[in-house]
Amino acid sequence: MKRFLVCAVLVAVCSCTPGRALADTVGSPTLDDVTSLKAEMAEMKRMMEDQRKSYQREIDDLKAKVEKLSAARAGPSPADELAAAIEKAKGEAPKTEPGMLSMFMGKGAGQSSVPDISVLGDVLGHYVADHHNAPNPPQQEDGKRHFRFREMEVAFSAPVDPHSKADLILTGGEDANGQWNMDLEEGYLTLTTLPYDLQVRVGKFRTVFGKNNPVHTHAMAWVDRPDVIANYFGTDGMAETGAEVSWLVPNPWKKYIEWTADIQNNGNPESFAGNRQDDVMFTNHLKYFDNLTPTTTAELGGSVATGANGDGSGGRTTLEGVDFTVKWKPPGQGLYKSLTWQSEAIFSQKDQPDGTAVNSWGAYSSLEYQFARQWRAFARLDFSEFPDDAGSKQIGGAVGLTYDMSEFCYWRLEYKHTCAQGALAGQDRDELWLQLNFGIGPHQAHKY
Amino acid sequence: MNSMYMTVLTAAAFCAAVGYGPCPASGADRLTVVTTTTDLKFVTDSVGGDHVKVTSIAGGAEDPHFVSAKPSFMMTAREANLWIAIGMELEIGWEGLILEGSRNPKIRKDTLGYLDASQGVLRLEVPTEKVTRSMGDVHPLGNPHYWLDPLNVRIVAKTIADRLAQLDPGHSEDFKGNLKAFQRKIDEHMFGKPLVDEVGGDKLWLREFKGELQGFLEAQHLTAKLGGWAAKMLPFRGEKILTYHRSWIYFTNRFGLVVPDEMEPKPGIPPSPGHVLQLIEKVKADHIRTLLMEPFYERKAPDLIAEKTGLKVVVCANSVGGDEAAKDYFSMIGNVVDKLAAALKPASEPERK
Could you write out the DSSP letters of every residue in B223-279? Predict the structure, then answer.
């Protein structure tokens, strides 16, 4: 500050002194004098700028204090008052008592570690009629009328940790003799945070082959599985223990393309080794999905499975499958109308103990039409040979009606006629089912 | 060994066939946002402006409870930086499948990329007793159709703006500015521009929220300046209407209408003949003049009641894009207000402009 005053006085004196007099007094200014003066002037400018900034800061601080005092005197702004009133109202709202659904969903206080638990029941009334004048009478269930608790499914699902989730599905049911059996239908851990759009499942799970096999019984559009699925994978489909990698394939068109590779025990009795299981089978499935129009979608799938069939001679079974599904659902009327056309074919090459191979195949095509909010009608055509007998064939057709009492309960009526050829000649069947399916608890939604 | 070879070969062949490589970036430095409904998309577009690219999963014309979890939606969600849901279990039937199927770790629940838009809203019909399915499709966290109250949309806009600012702090001032402009638009549509200019939107909402708006306007001699949706619906406060689903409660609550019953005997349960007969009697006894319903419900039962009682059936979209009139949130609510006001006004009274 002192230096500033000295400089200021110096400048003032210099500016007040006539140039000539100064020149007379000190003589002509030298170049050094001018340079020195310039430097002093620059220093003075800098000091004055610092001073100005300092004053400006003080002014800004004072302004802020004044504004704060004014705001405090005026009270909260209308925006703050509104926010406070809303928060107060929310605080005063009655608190939810966690209901059964909330508890199972883990939404209630302290319930976050409880897994989602659901229970499904599937009850059948089944009537089988033998074919009149058949040369070889049918061997199973003919003329039988009975009720059967086909399936009780108990499902648990929850994240295990931030990287994985677990699904356990226990299934029990009555067999044809009325004996109750309980089994693990599926039980697996899914790793959900892997890089590169990968997902891994480890445990027991339904083999991802085609469209129908991965679907649970209660989620099908019909009472029974198509003949080709029953003959090549079993009436409940194929589920084995192993591991799976699936990959959402990146592509320039940003279409849904999923590739799934399973490695599982070859314990399936129909096409593979059954209880002689001693090896693994490999399954690959490729799925392509696209929106044809805003109301119509198409899905195309291809599958290959191969593994030892356990006949003791090192024989293998190889299965190829193609599936094609078209769905139509108009968004504005989606509650009341929809159409699904689903078709699938499976081709099998199964080595036999005598060194030969049986080449056989089967297919089905199904149409389901929802014509009202709670009503759906379906029709399905079946054709199937057998993994070990290409000469025997089943040709059938089924029609039925589903009544959705609610989202969680449906009734279904199905009639099916099956013609048998080859070694099964004469075992034509007429079957009638009445199905009741119901569920409690938050069963996870099924894939599209 | 052959099988493993086949597996590897299949993968390699497929990658070659589809030209495997990194996907192109999805739009410069804009945030990619996926919303579950078109209403959330509209709000996000309004608040995010040029800094966001928004896609909605559900269309405006479909019932958001029953959206199919199509694999193509998983591809949409796969690239998202932010997923915004209505919440309160509205999307419980399909949201999880899409999120899991997308394999996108950025939008998992409990991350910054997942936003439940209901977190700040005023909730109605939050059950205070144990919820079971015998009650129908009752949501344990409260009625989730909260976007039909403009005040809640004002709150949702702030919730979204705050989250966008967290994800993209460089543009937080833009989000704040857009939010202010959006809220101002809601205020002007609700109360009319002259009144908002004179009093201010926050102050008007505060009075409205406390149920003091009419008294305040009278005291300030401002009643004549009230415009917008509030002015159009003012004459019908206390009027009883029927609705199809219990989805309009936030709208009717805001505008002072009373809903004594619905076409559905319980939420999500289609009308039975017995319930329709009961409604016919109720409409006659209570002199109910109007039924409000969404376009995606069947008109058969409402038309039957209309035929028997003279009830007017008003069909309005409850989401942006749900019909021709619902081009944006303002026109969607405006359309409901206009149609209801026309249906509710006495035959002799000219239509309010």
Answer: GGG--HHHHHHGGGTT-B-EESSTT-HHHHHHTT-B---BSSSSTTPPPPHHHHHHH
Contacts of B237 (CB under 8 A, 6+ apart): B255, B256, B257
Euclidean distance between CA atoms B172 and B166, whole angstroms: 8
Q: What is the CA radius of gyration of chain A?
A: 40
What phi and psi values does residue A292 have, to the nearest 5 degrees? Answer: -75, -45
Half-sphere exposure for A291 (CA within 13 Å, toward CB) = 16
Q: Report the SS3 class of residue A76.
A: coil
Residue A231 half-sphere exposure toward CB, CA atoms < 13 A: 26
C-alpha span between B261 and B7 (Å, rounded): 60
Contact with chain B for residue A374, Cβ under 8 A: yes
Q: Using alpha carbons, select from A219, A208, A218, A222 the residue that is nearest to residue A364.
A: A222
Instruction: Evaluate the CA torsion angle B10, B16, B19, B23 in order and state its sign.
Output: positive
Distances (CA, A) of A47 to A12, A36, A52, A438, B246: 17, 17, 9, 87, 73
Place of tokens 């080595």: A351
Where do the DSSP E strands lie in A373-428?
375-386, 389-406, 409-421
Higher-confidence residue of B18 and B183: namely: B183
What CA–CA distance (Å, rounded) separates A65 from B337?
47
Cα gap A190→A208, rounded to integer Å = 15
Q: What is the pTM of this model?
A: 0.83
> Distance (Å, rounded) from C-alpha A352 to C-alpha B223?
92
Task: Quote the tokens at residue A98.
Answer: 């966690």
pLDDT at position B14 is 46
Phi, psi of B113 (to 5 degrees): -85, 0
pLDDT tens, B291-330? 999 999 999 999 999 999 999 999 999 999 999 999 999 9
> Which residues in chain A are closer than 8 Å to B15, comparing Cβ atoms?
249
* The Cα angle at residue A221 between residues A219 and A226, in degrees rounded to 5: 105
Cα–Cα distance between A129 and A114 in angstroms, integer?
47
Q: Which amino acid is at A397?
A: G
Side chain identity, residue A106: G
**Cα separation of B146 and B153, whole Å?**
8
Mean pLDDT, 10 residues at a time, chain A of 448 residues = 49 46 56 88 91 89 81 78 88 58 42 82 90 49 74 94 94 84 95 93 98 96 97 95 96 95 95 85 98 96 94 86 97 91 98 92 98 96 96 96 94 96 88 95 76
CB–CB contact B127 A282 (8 Å) = no
**A196: nearest Cα among B103, B14, B72:** B103
Closest alpha carbon within chain A to B270:
A373
Pairwise CA distance, residues A58 & A324, whole Å:
77
Taking the CA of residue A192 and the nearest CA in chain B, the distance in Å comes to: 7
Q: What ipTM is given for this predicted complex?
A: 0.84
pLDDT tens digits, B252-284: 999 999 999 999 999 988 999 999 999 999 999
Compare all CA atoms of chain B with the CA of A81 and give the residue at the minimum distance.
Answer: B206
Q: Do B103 and A282 touch (CB under 8 A)?
A: no
Kindly state the average pLDDT of the residues B120-142. Answer: 88
Q: How far is the alpha carbon of B130 from chain A, nearest alpha carbon, in Å?
A: 4
A102: closest chain B residue by CA: B140
Alpha carbon A18 to its chain's center: 93
**B285 alpha carbon, distance to own chain's centre:** 32
Strand, helix or coil for residue A194: coil
φ/ψ (deg, to 5) at A136 = -120, 100
pLDDT of residue A94: 62
- The neighbouring-strand residues paired with B201 are none
Q: What is the 3-state secondary structure (H, E, C) of B138-186?
A: CCCCCECCHHHCHHHHHHHHHHHHHHHHHHCHHHHHHHHHHHHHHHHHH
pLDDT > 60? residue B25:
no
d(C-alpha B318, C-alpha B299), whole Å: 16
